Amino acid sequence: MGDVVPLQRAPTEASALPDEALISACARGDEAALGVLFDRHREAVHRFLDRMVGAPPDVLEDLLQSTFVEVWRCADRFHGRSKVTTWIIGIAHNMARHYLRDTIRRRAAFDVLAHRPPPSVATPEEETAGHEKVVRLRAALDALPEKMRAAFVLTEIEELSGKDAAEALGIRPNALWRRVFEARKRLRRALEEER
Amino acid sequence: MTDPCPNVRALSDAFARGDEALAAHAERCRSCGKEWSSLQEIRTVARAMPYRTMSPERIRSVRAQIVMATRNARPPANRSRAYAIAAALVMVALGFSSVWMRKQDDRPFLATVTSLSGARPRRVAMIEDGVRREVVTLLSGRMDVQVETLTPGERFLVVTDDAEVEVRGTRFEVEAREGLLHEVRVISGLVEVRPRERLTALLRTGERWIREEPSQARIVAPVAPIDPIVEKPIKAVKKVRKLKAPPARQPTAAERAFQEGWSLYREGRSKEAAAAFDRVIDLAPDTPLAEDANYWKEQALRSTEAW
Questions:
Q1: pTM, entire model
Q2: What band does B270 get if pLDDT is binned at 50, 70 and 90?
Q3: CA distance linking residue B134 with residue B113, whole number of Å
Q4: Cβ–Cβ of A134/B45 closer than 8 Å?
Q5: pLDDT at position A152
């Protein structure tokens, strides 16, 4: 019998690890793992927060930052029952919800819109969809109750599956679809109003 | 034979789920097809909405601030099951209701911060051992801050390059210029202003702390009622209360170490500064000075590391 060679795991770069392993590493205090998670999910979280709260850029960055600090703090409570993306979006949604509750309700609607990108410059996608419609839909989306807006943004814009979106929002799929349906009704009304 | 038409809700759900059978039905049925097109239009327009992105510089900045915050908020690694159960039992014994706890834990920020003139404050909120903390860094501009009533242990600080402002359930405005604290105006409550290398000032409702170069800062008592929302010109000031010099006192070893650390940090000698701040923590553990030292140690370490 030949020599027994001990099995050695090759050193793994954090960037090569799956999300679940990174969360586990965060729970053990690995800052590099959080950095990789930030790099992977920053854009999606920032985009979701932008569509949810429409706040000034510095507030968005604060919410983004608080989301990932919370990911770090709660890493040991992630049990893999949902996707990491869904879990992080759920945390971001919590941040957005509290921000909206505490701040938006005290602000006038025009103030909220003032923080949006100027509608005068149309992107190629907007040109296709109709620039004016995009502006109207955005205003209508901002006016939606937070629960409906979150359901609509996650399923229709961020293209999460019903199961994932419901998990991120902590609700049952039926409740999710009801909210999406109500949101669509209101948005449709807004689009049709000025025809 | 034609399929029966689903109701509007069923069609909406089917559209969201990408139900192919109902999509085929919508192609054949005029009324359902119209509904389907409307749903498609909303989706197309919604997905065409532009969203903001961050510049690479801002991404790096936020990333660095996250790591700074995480160093102050280590996750409870290797927490044993028995410890968790014991902790839960203690909490039940103390009579905390779960509803109250969830409400406390969920809140990301301790204060409502409104920018009044060009302020771009950076906010870091964290919960450590169930206690919330928030640090707002202000480099320039003026902002209105309304802090909730804090529970024991909770801390809310505004930090500039040269000072800290700490409050306990109050409302105030703070202004910084080029990184330096310029003015603090208390609308209600009590605020402690701790400028580096200057006297600490305790401000009551209506009082203001104003930087005056090169002499010492002063506290101005208010005369006109202050409108907390609309900025109004301040009327004539009747009296100016100069800060009295404190009785002569030798700084403690911890205070000397802090000053040394601070000077080193300002000189850009970050590693030595971090070591000096470490000494402060050893010399005066569990004191506000140690907490300050810990914060500046993190800042010093951060400036030496590429993350």
A1: 0.52
A2: confident
A3: 12
A4: yes
A5: 94
pLDDT, one tens digit per residue, over B125-165 is 766 666 677 778 787 788 888 887 777 677 788 887 777 88
| Whole-number pLDDT of residue B86 | 53
Distance from CA of A2 to the nearest CA of B (A): 39
Question: Chain A: residue nearest B122 by CA?
Answer: A62
Residues A3-58: tens digit of each pLDDT:
454 444 444 566 677 888 888 888 888 888 888 899 999 999 999 999 998 778 88
Residues 6+ apart with CB under 8 A from B122: A58, A61, A62, B65, B136, B137, B138
Q: How far is A1 from chain B (nearest CA, A)?
A: 41
Question: Considering only residues 49 to 78 of chain A, which have any Cβ-Cβ distance to chain B shorter than 8 Å?
Answer: 50-51, 56-58, 60-66, 68-70, 72-76
Beta bridge partners of B157: B135, B166
Amino acid symbol at B25: H
* Angle, vertex CA B50, rays to CA B47 and CA B56, nearest 5: 125
